[in-house]
Batch of 4 targets.
Target 1
Amino acid sequence: MRKTVSLLASTGAAGALILGSALPAGADPNSPNVGITGAARCPASLATGVAITTSAGESDTSGVSAGGFYSLSLQQVPSVGTVATFSVECSNGSDSFSRTRLITRPISGKVVSVNLFS
């Protein structure tokens, strides 16, 4: 009996250690700070910029790398999330478009990925 209890206790401790190490460093679901990264693609030209505006009035803008990637940051994402409108600017203005998404705080980490394709 004593060996069984000892084995269960050590197994539980090992499981907690594994679970604790599986969460990314800096993960804080209580933090309103959320990074947003992703790819932006226009139908017939190059994406040149991405802007975001939330239902709470927060906004940010980003250029788009040669590979088509962008990075944005929000500091006021409520625990229930926020509706965000992404506007993608394309080198051919007629290709530009917008998308609306719900942005929530990530369960782990500080960054969410949102790909924007026309």
Target 2
Amino acid sequence: MSVHKESIAVLGGLADHYFLSETPGLSNSLGWGPKGIELRGQVKITQTQVRRVQQFIETARYNIALHNCEHFANYILYGLPLSSQQTTCHKGLGATIIAQLQPKQTITENILADINRQFKHRLQVERAKRAKREIYQFCQTHQIALEPEAIA
């Protein structure tokens, strides 16, 4: 897992988006933005990193200058919320533009969004279990033989 960045195209390269991933590109990545946690695909993180994610979303709301995607990526990976985006003139300008355009999310909204994602995942798991039970019952009722892996 390492920190990666992509230029934000709509701003003509005036700002970058930082995220964590095992490979370059946003698929299978973990990031932070104005809407909170940005999880794409699957990522592998340690228990320490899970605790850091929880700490970050519980204590910080998105702010392009103080709690941006680069702060998030560096904090999760190294334990230090560092960002160099404001040190160059054009990146600082991009950050200023983004700060005016992007909605801010409160700490409570971060936590509620995370709870909502967890709830949706659990709901999907329960629906899948119920569907497997219904298939199994249907097959038993109609005396259809199932392969063991078909209901696993």
Target 3
Amino acid sequence: MSAARTEPLPKEQTQAAVGKRLQAESANAMLNALSIAKEMVQDFRQQDRFFKYKAFIVGGWLLLSIGTVGVTCSRGVKETGEFGAKLTHVASRSSLTIVNKSRDSWLDVIIIVKDDRGQEWRASVARVDPTNPLTVTPKQLLGGQGQAAPSDIKIRGVEMRTSDGRATLMQEGKNLTEDEH
């Protein structure tokens, strides 16, 4: 079974516009792909049942694997509200307080602060229990080389990462945990 043309294109069509030639070539490619798919289905039908069992097992395994990766990757970034985080930023002292308003403890918490110069500073804590605040001051923030943040840091962004995911709490100086009332 073949999807190839039985005769070459007429001469007047070879001189046609580029758009028409592209359309004809894409139709050829589609017909060839359809022909290959039909041949594969026909070959599969001619196989014995043990081969089909193996193929269905491998296909099921692939489907489960892709589904697992998809579900795992879709977990990604939690919305701020899902964490139950409430951010209070005291600009005059360059400090932040994040309150855990959820029912669950946060584990392996890393706070990433971005300043007005685009530098990232990090602070970490092993656990924050429900209703407990976490206060981060410039002395607790460390840069990429282990240096402490300046005491007059101007905080423009805050991201919180935990063992359950991550959430952006402040972006471009706007507190994303404040109610919009």
Target 4
Amino acid sequence: MSRQVFLYDPPERFVAGTVGLPGRRTFFLQASAGGRVTSVALEKAQVAALAERMDELLDEVVRRTGGSAPVPAVAPADATDTAPLDTPVEEEFRVGTMALAWDGEDQRLVVEAQALVELDAESEEDLAEAEERLLQDEENGPPMLRVRLTGAQARAFAKRALDVVNAGRPPCPLCSLPLDPEGHVCPRQNGYRRGA
């Protein structure tokens, strides 16, 4: 089966968002352009890591180019997107592997999100070899979302993604575990219920 690549170069919109209530949210990356919408599911930690690494990569691009690259220091106010995900949200696949790269020729940040794939391997060496083959197989690999963003779009994505991640349940001031609306059993309180 040939690989399905959902390419957005450039997207009209690329955002991280959620469906569901805090504590039970499902996280998505959503790209759209020309009437097409692609939504892929991923974990909260993956959204946070993507946003943080994206900011780090953009900072490094600015540093290495001496500020000549078209990358703003912070997300431009006119690029802020607070709208909800486009509906209906239909999951194309669940993300396993993500990659970031800077295309210096086109001055674009490239984001790739590849579908989660389970590999059978007898040893660590076999697993490493299978992973490498999977990443190198452009024709028959798992589905992939590839988005090419300007510096401003990338900064706006990273800001929104971190805001979405931080919009969940507040942490317990004692143990840092998330507080449910009805409280939680706090290990620092020897199991006594702590209210929200």
